[in-house]
Write a structure and sequence with these properties.
The chain is α/β, with parallel strands linked by helices. Strands 1, 2, 3, 4, 8, 12 and 13 form a seven-stranded parallel beta sheet that branches. Bound molecules: 5'-O-[(L-methionyl)-sulphamoyl]adenosine.
């Protein structure tokens, strides 16, 4: 591992517009596991998590529930904190962006960036996605309106705004990525970020006037109407938390763990802000993938969001932690299914780990009254094999290869289970009890190592194993992991991972798929646009003599003269109702004659048994405006 002795690890701070789901739990559990590992290695470690509470999205969520943003934020922030406490997450500080010290810290940072000449006032016109709290240029939008990240509709906004000179940092950022190839992990993601920056960086709008719920700009600027852009406010949490704890000696962070969707903010904006603040840059930004459930994207409307508390209530925290960290290589997308979780519990956890410990407890009791002492004998080589695997493990952790770490530990367990199979102690106990004793010394040493090594991943199970093997899980135990113990007193403990026979979680209700519509005479959009429909204003209305149904209308379509249109609407509209009202007209119909009168278009209407209704624009529009 790197030479730094103080290790600072962070999770993203979570938006309080909704309660925690598996994605939040995943990031937090990885961060907790890495922080625990760092402590085990003897490093002074600081783990930060918290909640991101400002911005338009939160303001809108609170409004929908008739609450003030602060009341709403208090409630949801607490649900996150309670969840992490119940899950035993060992965070050192829980930050809320509504905390006073944070707001003060953010203002100071803004002032410093302003004094450094990196902030200027301008006006912003662009497309804003409230859901992602992010701006996009016209060319970035999908179908000219939708957010390229989440697909939701963006809003066009124009307002006075302060800007951060992000463009100035284009080259320094590219140089930094080059000099620090492990800054962005995994490397596949690094290339995406570099390509994005190489495409050119525009200055970033960092203040807003269209809503209130945010940190105000520093008083020195005299701009009471501006609040800070939520991502500037949020990213600074990584520094303000240390400042308030008076632990700036932990900066720069060893590791910011984030989901792939927010990598851009952390790998581009954040280092640029830090450069502007003259602060050193973090060592790694590690981006993980996205979780789906049963192969489907999670969404509240489908009702398939994985709620971490529900999983943990059913299967226990350690099984969940193991599953999350083992199931997917870091950086790749993963799928949660209850079946896959049960397979991991019954297979890896029950059959390999639980079973090996059970066999040790059973045999030591039956053959030696639970106490034995002796040499490794024939098993010395096998323990060397185990130790050579352990030698490699440390490298995996800070490179976020936790699945490989676990794979190797499970290979070690397989060595233990195989050794019992091959040595057949049940057949030898009468004829060669020394070999059986050596076998148990070997298994006990192997499991002691495993108990220490899995402690960052499955802390509770590790403590149980330590109880059975009478050892202590501590940085010392890790430092002396290769020590060989020759005497053991094994304590009986209940099975670590009892078999799961049937699913325990509530079934996700399958919502019936909407029936497929049978469409008649389907046309393409191009075909539709062959019909030119325009908005027009009725200038004059005249009844057609000898007809009960027809009016002769003069309709202005913004052309050199009004059009004459004969329409069968007289039974449903009076002349007054029609005069100066707007209608929709099919403007490229071939003129036809009706009751001897030329009709130069058709007004659109819908008719059912209760009568006829004209199709009109909901708001008045300029005459001639095309309808699409
Ligand atoms: N508030 C910002 C982060 C600011 S950090 C200075 C934010 N919050 S969030 O609550 O929307 O998301 C937090 C984390 O959850 C992100 O890392 C995101 O990637 C992760 N996940 C959200 N949904 C997820 C999945 N379905 N799967 C995996 N993780 C996902 O973004």
């Amino acid at each position: 591992m790197a030479s730094c002795k103080k290790i600072y690890i962070t999770t993203p701070i979570y938006y309080v517009n909704d309660v925690a789901h598996i994605g939040h739990a995943y990031t937090t559990i990885i961060a907790d596991a890495v922080a625990r590992f760092s402590k085990l290695m003897g490093y002074e470690t600081f783990l930060l998590t918290g909640t991101d509470e400002h911005g338009q999205k939160i303001e809108e969520s609170a409004k929908k529930r008739n609450r003030t943003p602060k009341e709403y934020a208090d409630e949801i922030s607490k649900t996150f904190k309670d969840l992490w406490d119940d899950f035993g997450i060992e965070y050192d500080h829980f930050i809320r962006t509504t905390d006073e010290y944070h707001k003060e810290g953010v203002k100071k940072a803004f002032e410093k960036m302003y004094e450094n000449g990196d902030i200027y006032k301008g006006s912003y016109k662009g497309n804003y996605c409230v859901s992602c709290e992010s701006f996009f240029t016209d060319t970035q939008l999908i179908d000219e309106i939708a957010c390229p990240d989440c697909g939701k509709e963006t809003k066009e906004i124009e307002e006075e705004s302060y800007f951060f000179r992000l463009s100035k940092y284009e080259k320094p950022l590219l140089d930094f990525y080059k000099e620090n190839p492990e800054f962005i992990l995994p490397t596949s993601k690094r290339n995406e970020v570099i390509a994005f920056v190489e495409n050119g960086l525009k200055d970033l709008s960092i203040s807003r006037t269209s809503f209130d719920w945010g940190v105000k700009l520093p008083d020195s600027l005299g701009e009471p109407d501006h609040v800070m852009y939520v991502w500037l406010d949020a990213l600074l949490n990584y520094v303000t938390a240390l400042e308030t704890e008076e632990r700036m000696d932990f900066w720069p962070a060893k590791l910011h763990i984030v989901g792939k969707d927010i990598l851009r903010f952390h790998a581009i904006y954040w280092p640029a802000f830090l450069m502007s603040l003259d602060l050193p840059l973090p060592h790694h930004i590690s981006a993980h993938g996205w979780w789906t459930r049963d192969g489907q994207k999670m969404s509240k409307s489908i009702g398939n969001v994985v709620k971490p508390r529900e999983v943990v209530d059913a299967y226990g925290i350690d099984s969940f932690r193991y599953f999350l960290l083992r199931e997917v290589p870091f950086g790749q997308d993963g799928d949660f299914s209850e079946k896959a979780l049960i397979n991991r519990i019954n297979g890896d956890l029950g059959n390999s780990l639980g079973n090996l410990l059970n066999r040790l407890i059973g045999m030591s009791d039956k053959y030696f009254g639970s106490e034995f002492e002796g040499e490794l004998g024939n098993f010395e080589e096998k323990l060397k094999e185990v130790d050579s695997k352990i030698g490699n493990l440390e490298n995996y952790i800070f490179k976020m290869q936790l699945h490989r770490y676990l794979e190797d530990i499970w290979e070690i367990l397989a060595i233990g289970n195989r050794a019992i199979q091959e040595s057949e102690p049940w057949a030898k106990i009468k004829t060669n009890p020394d070999e059986v004793r050596s076998l148990l010394i070997f298994i006990s040493n192997l499991l002691s190592r495993v108990a220490v090594l899995i402690s960052p991943i499955m802390p509770k199970s590790s403590i149980e194993m330590a109880k059975a093997l009478q050892l202590e899980i501590s940085p010392d135990a890790y430092k002396n992991i290769f020590e060989i113990r020759n005497s053991f007193k094994i304590v009986k403990i209940p099975a670590l991972f009892p078999r799961v026979d049937k699913p325990k979680m509530q079934k996700v209700e399958e919502k019936p798929k909407p029936k497929e519509l049978k469409l008649d005479g389907v046309i393409t959009i191009d075909k539709f646009f062959e019909t030119k429909i325009k908005i027009g204003e009725v200038l004059e209305v005249e009844a057609v003599p000898k007809s009960k149904k027809l009016y002769k209308l003069q309709v202005d379509l913004g052309e050199e003269r009004p059009r004459q249109i004969v329409a069968g609407i007289r039974e449903f509209y009076s002349e007054d109702e029609l005069t100066h009202s707007q209608v929709c007209v099919v403007a490229n119909l071939k003129p036809a004659k009706l009751m001897g009168l030329v009709s130069e278009g058709m007004v659109l209407a819908g008719k059912d048994e209760s009568g006829l209704s004209l199709i009109r624009p909901e708001k008045r529009k300029k005459v001639g405006t095309p309808v699409s």
